[in-house]
Amino acid sequence: MLNRSLKITPAALGVAVLGLSVSTLASAQPLADSISQAIDGGDVALNLRYRHEYVDQDGKPKDANASTLRSRITLKSGVVGGFMGLVEVDNVSYVGGDNFNNTENGKTNYPVVADPDYTEVNQAFISYAFDDKNKATLGRQRINHSGQRFLGGVGWRQNEQTFDAATFTLSPLDGLTVDYSYIWDVNRIFGPEGSDADFEGDSHALIATYKIADGHTISGFSYLLDLDEAPALSSSTYGLEYKGGFNVSDGVSLGVNLSYAEQSDYKDSGLDYDAGYYFAELAVKTKPVTVALGYEVLESDNGVGFKTPLATLHKFQGFADKFLVTPPGGIEDTYLKVATKIAGVKLIAFYHDFEAETGGMDYGSEFDFIAAYKFGKNYSVLFKYAAYEADDYSNDTDKAWLMVTAAF
């Protein structure tokens, strides 16, 4: 049974995508040819992802052990007269018991592992390509902007975040790409049902990226979030981002990523604040190892921290997920990243130091580690570890994951 149905008519269009594509073009070519083209040019994909997540958190009498399997089937039609459709269905099942707080089962003696069991339509959309650079997409879809700091799919969790939206990807000038989405429903990671499953509203997301030169881009972005279920998270954000790479010498390059944004309350927020966002990362890349130093600041104003409720938050400020909500005093995250590959195994380590942006609190520090290996073209395995050491914020927390993925 599909618990999260496509409530919105535009998203529901994707469920019957082949019929819609064909019927649109029926007057231009025989119906049988359209059906054949849609089916013959289509694709069926299966993705299986098993994960065990362990959490030991001070203040919780029991440790969490979550053993989950996500099964995903994706049906994509061929292109018929510029139209293409996709339907994707996910199921998450527990392998063994649910000895963790999945945010719905009431097991508050355990730490949270936000992977509820469910079956749902993850994506269902129809798209139309005006040409090879301009496209429109209508329905439930995945939207990832830039590094996903402000808008992303939270692909790490077993229940991905998708959006019921109308999206336009346009290239009006050489080197310029514009992505705009009108979003009326956010299908969140907390499951198809429950009070925190969706953010309905009238939200706008825009990012325009211009290629200055080879290896150098500058982007302007705007996010106007009107969230009915969480009005305090409604906000307007405007910002700029630069990404560039420089060759220093043979085998050595320097990567630069800079970002700045300003945010204020929006629509029915009820808050009154103006807070800034700053990000800088310098990465020295050589053949055996990459070393990056980063500094990220989410400011606070009137006791309200800069908010990114639609981001892929697990990617930022430590894998222990202690700062999914920005503290009232804001946050400064200074981190060091080291990455290499040994015998085909990708190895990445992070060290984070967290402080309040205002008020002088020393939040704590965190060590993160990843080891990932892909074997064959269909299989991969990943081990991940996070250790957060609290000072003035939250609790000491250790997390470990083992994940195996098969994709066909």
Report on the structure:
This protein has 408 residues and is mainly beta. 5% of the residues lie in helices and 55% in strands. The chain contains three helices and 20 strands. It has an 18-stranded antiparallel β-barrel. It has a two-stranded antiparallel ribbon with strand order 14-15. Helix 2 crosses helix 3.
Summarize the structure.
Helices cover 5% and strands 55% of the residues. It is mostly beta strands and 408 residues long. It starts with 8 loop residues before the first helix and ends with a strand.
Poorly predicted sequence stretches spanning 5 or more consecutive residues:
8-26
Oligomer: single chain
Structural class: mainly beta
Order of helices and strands: HHHEEEEEEEEEEEEEEEEEEEE
Query: Over all CA atoms, what is the radius of gyration?
Result: 22 Å
Q: What general outline do the C-alpha atoms trace?
A: globular
Biggest sheet descriptor: 18 strands, antiparallel, barrel
Strand residue content: over 45%
Give the termini separation: 24 Å
Helix content: under 10%
Question: What is the β-strand count?
Answer: 20
Roughly what is the average pLDDT, rounded to an integer? 92
Number of helical regions: 3
